[in-house]
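To: structure desk
From: M.T.
Subject: fold request, one chain
Message: Could you run this one when you get a chance? Sequence is below, nothing fancy, just the single chain.
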Amino acid sequence: MSKNHISYSEFKIWKECPWKHKLKYIENLKGFRGNEYTAFGTAIHDVCEKTARGQFGGPAQAKLLFAKRFQEELDSLPEDHKFNEKLLKEMKAQGKELIPDIFPALNEYFGEHEVIAAEERLYEPIKEYAESEHNFKGFIDLIVKTPDGKYHVIDWKTCTWGWDARKRSDKMIVYQLIFYKYYLALKYDIDPNDIETHFALLKRTAKKNRVEIFKVTSGKKRTENALKMLKNALYYINRKFYIKNRLSCRYCDFHKTEHCT
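Reply: Done. Structure tokens follow.
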């Protein structure tokens, strides 16, 4: 590896297809460069971060920031991107409807709580991989603490209408929170038993219950499995093991290009 860190996103790409990982992270080729959905998600995340930090006087300012950030993200998309004007109009209205519901839902779910951090940076050593020094890099969307002494790691996920049961239990999705919990505990020497993990679904098209927060189990066995997989990823990446996973070609940006035929 040319760098000494790995993020959850990079790990997930490697698990999907080692060859795609090589193209994206070793050769630094541009693949997917965003669309209306990623622009919407980025704008909502920015509003959540600044709201958690107390940078707004109320929902009206938050809505203005969303509109501004959404447009900035749209403007940054490739010049040849073909916009769906109907979808854009819907998204602008949906974002403004969603924003006032987010933190009231958080208050209802946790009750009394204290915001500890928003966009908490992780850059912690991966001690399980002893061959060379590597760090786990990541940013935790939100950390709150409740009166019982528990720390709660929350990851915002924008979506259309929600997640089905299969997606909720997908280990590759859940492992993101597993890693965040594990390395947050290392960073601050917190007992892992005092950290709980949650996804917060921010539903763009829902007419009610637009925000759904649910707990993800992150016990010892699940953590061991996640760390073992991370260790294996580093082992094969360092050895330049770039096998193609043909089962993941369908939605790959490099499929049927000069980079992967």
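Reply (cont.): The chain has one domain: 5-248. Let me know if you need anything else for the meeting.
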